[in-house]
Automatic annotation (TrEMBL):
All copies of domain TLC, residue ranges: 44-264
Residue ranges of the TM segments: 6-32, 53-72, 92-110, 192-214, 226-247
InterPro entries linked: TLC-dom, TLCD
One Gene Ontology cellular component: membrane
The entry's keywords: Membrane, Transmembrane, Transmembrane helix
Protein's cellular compartments: Membrane
Keyword ATP-binding on entry: no
Top-rank taxon: Eukaryota
Protein name, UniProt field: TLC domain containing 4
Topology versus the membrane: Multi-pass membrane protein
Length: 281
C-alpha cells in the first residue's frame, strides 16, 4: 500500500469521525450558543438540525475546495479525464467520508430523517467516487483490464471535483430549513434573501452546469483518453451523472414552485397593504 493510498484512506476515516463528532457533540453545543431557539426544539427537530449543520460544514469545505480546483488546478484544467491532483483526491475523500457518515445517521434515525432519495444520492455518489480514489495498476486479469483503466492514478479527479460544486447550494437549502424550524416569518428579509440566493445558486451549480458538462462528455467520447478509461468507468461515469442530475432537476422543480409561491404571496401582501394605505388616505 503506497503513501498516497494511506493518505486517502486516512482522510476518509478522519472525515467520517469528524462529521460524526460534529453531529453528536459539536452541533448541540454550538447551536445552543448561537441560537437560543435550538433548545426549544423537540427531539426530532434537533436530530434534523444537527444533520443539516453537518451538511453545511461539509458543503462549505468540499464546495470551496472544489471551486478552487475548478478555477486554478492546472493539471485538471489541461486534462480533465486524467489530470492528477492530490488536493482533488483529498477533497473527494473528505466527501466520501461525509457520505458514509450521513448514510449511517440516516439509517440510524430513519423514522426521523430517513429519505430514500438521499440514500440513492449518497450511494450513487460513493460508487462514482470510488473510481477516483482507487488505483488500478498492472496486476489485473485480461478481462478486468478491458473493463477498467489499467493505470488509474488520477482518473476523473477534476470531473469529480466539478460535481462537488453542486454542494455550494446546500448551505442555503439548510438555512431555509433552519429559519422554518425557528418559525421565522416567511416574508422576513432574511428569509426572502436566503430564498432568492438558494434558488439562484442551486440553479447555477446544479442545473445550468448540466448542458456544458454533458457537452464536454460528448466532446471526449471516443477519444484515446476516453477509451483508456475502460468500459466500466465509462458506463459508471455516464450513468451516475444521469441519476444525480435527474434528482437535481426534481429538486429544482420543487424549489422553483416554492419560490413562485412565495413571490405570489409577497405580491398579494404588497397589494393588500397598498389597498389598506389607500383606505387610510
Amino acid at each position: 500500500m503506497d503513501t498516497n493510498t494511506i493518505l486517502l484512506i486516512s482522510t476518509c476515516f478522519a472525515s467520517f469521525f469528524t462529521f460524526q463528532i460534529i453531529f453528536h457533540v459539536v452541533s448541540y453545543w454550538f447551536s445552543a450558543k448561537i441560537s437560543p431557539g435550538f433548545n426549544n426544539l423537540n427531539f426530532k427537530k434537533k436530530i434534523e438540525w444537527n444533520s443539516r449543520v453537518v451538511s453545511t460544514c461539509h458543503s462549505l469545505v468540499v464546495g470551496l475546495v472544489g471551486l478552487y480546483i475548478f478555477l486554478f488546478d492546472e493539471a485538471g484544467i489541461a486534462d480533465p479525464l486524467w489530470g492528477d491532483t492530490s488536493l482533488g483526491k483529498v477533497n473527494v475523500a473528505i466527501a466520501s467520508g461525509y457520505l458514509v457518515s450521513d448514510l449511517l445517521i440516516l439509517i440510524w434515525y430513519w423514522k426521523v430523517i430517513g429519505d430514500k432519495y438521499f440514500v440513492i444520492h449518497h450511494c450513487t455518489a460513493l460508487y462514482a467516487y470510488h473510481f477516483v480514489l482507487l488505483s488500478h495498476k498492472g496486476s489485473h486479469s485480461q478481462l478486468w483490464s478491458s473493463l477498467v483503466a489499467q493505470k488509474n492514478d488520477g482518473v476523473l479527479v477534476y470531473v469529480g471535483n466539478f460535481r462537488l460544486l453542486a454542494e455550494l447550494s446546500s448551505p442555503f437549502v439548510n438555512q431555509r430549513w433552519f429559519f422554518e424550524a425557528l418559525k421565522y416569518p416567511k416574508f422576513s428579509k432574511a428569509n426572502v434573501i436566503n430564498g432568492i440566493l438558494m434558488t439562484v445558486v442551486f440553479f447555477v451549480v446544479r442545473i445550468a452546469s448540466i448542458p456544458p458538462y454533458y457537452g464536454y462528455m460528448y466532446s471526449v467520447f471516443g477519444t484515446e483518453a476516453y477509451m483508456r478509461l475502460g468500459f466500466l468507468i465509462q458506463f459508471s461515469w455516464i450513468s451516475t451523472c444521469v441519476v444525480l442530475d435527474v434528482m437535481n432537476v426534481m429538486w429544482m422543480i420543487k424549489i422553483s414552485k416554492g419560490c413562485i409561491k412565495v413571490i405570489s404571496l409577497l405580491r398579494q401582501e404588497k397589494a393588500r397593504k397598498s389597498l389598506q394605505n389607500g383606505k387610510l388616505d
